[in-house]
Amino acid sequence: MAALGPQINTLMYRKTTLPSGIRVVTERMDSVRSASLGIWANIGSAGERAPRRGISHLVEHMVFKGTEKRTAREIAETMDGVGGNLNAFTDKEATCYYARVIDHHVPLALDVLSDMLRRPLFAPNDIAKEQRVVVEEIKMYEDSPSEHVHELFLRQMWAGSSLGDPTIGFEETVVALDAAALREHLADHYAPNALLVCAAGNVDHDAFVEHVQTQFEGYAGVSPTPVPQAPMALPQSRIFEKDIEQAHVVLGVQGLSVRDDRRYVLSVLDTLLGGGMSSRLFQEIREKRGLVYTVYSFQNGYLGSGLFGIYAGCSAENVQPCIDVTMEQLALLRTHRVSDAELLLAKEHMKGSLTLSLESTSSRMMRLGRNEYAFGRQIATEEIEAAIDAVTADEIIELSSELFAEERVGLCVLGPVDHAHLVSDAA
Prior knowledge:
The protein is an alpha+beta fold. It has 15 helices and 12 strands. Helices cover 42% and strands 19% of the residues. A 7-stranded mixed sheet has the order 1-2-3-7-4-6-5. Strands 8-12-9-11-10 form a 5-stranded mixed sheet, sandwiched between helices. The termini are far apart.
């Protein structure tokens, strides 16, 4: 076996870079009998050329359809036979293939995952079938207005940017892809320097590194490092009329990238505004006025940019009142200092949610991958909690004043609504 590259150890995490360039990061959890492992590639829809929009997602689907070693059925039966779970996802800036198994089945799960990525068949008849599946998936999202409105909002705010287009792609781009395009995508974006192999749970780092080294023996090549997209939001108001029972409203602004030093301030602000049942929007819009069943705030943070938004689902006649109350709450955050009690409540909510997520090996594995790609290091829970505790009321006002200026706010409405329903300046 070739000599290993640089190694980084902490009390919780270990990282090794193989001679090929593949990074291996683990987090040992002695209190569990399972492990979650994932193979990440730092390519998602933001790194695609527009005519190939959706290729990362289609590749993710296709590697499950058979390899030179296993049929699609054998892939499924191998994991089912040990009680394991096998899945994958594609987002804007990464693709991840992952499994959760009992600890002594980690080598088997890694063998399956590496086989899928190194030796996919990409049979033309399978591609044709899976293209039809993805087209149905596109239609499914379009028929789910509470999800579709978020896609419309991104496309509206980040018009012309690959971050704004849907990760799943468009029907015309997906059906135009062939086996040659899929193989080219793997060759261009799945070289060792682009791959990250993570494991969290009852796993020994040194043994896991040896398994990764064995599975990727002879794997070579270099992928260009993706340049993070950094679009600026184009705030505007759009209404998409649709004959459905409820209107779906997203109101939002340019946010922060995941690397921004103020990300913890924004997370506390997010929790205060719409992060739970005690949040301002939930209390004002649902509890006090009964205008909605669902209302929440959210962040879409990426390596070079971000969006911050508020979603509400309501009847057509309640759209304008929801907008008005939301704008009032944004104005209050810009002009009035958050009380110590409310700030403490938000911080404790965040720290509690963080602690609960740490009980899952899958959540921990996801954190390993996202932290490595975003920061090149692992951020310990203690560091996160300290950063949350350090957020001040003055920082909340300062960031709110920057982000929530009225001229920065965009609005997207999907449902049985026309301009007659909207009368405020915000619309």
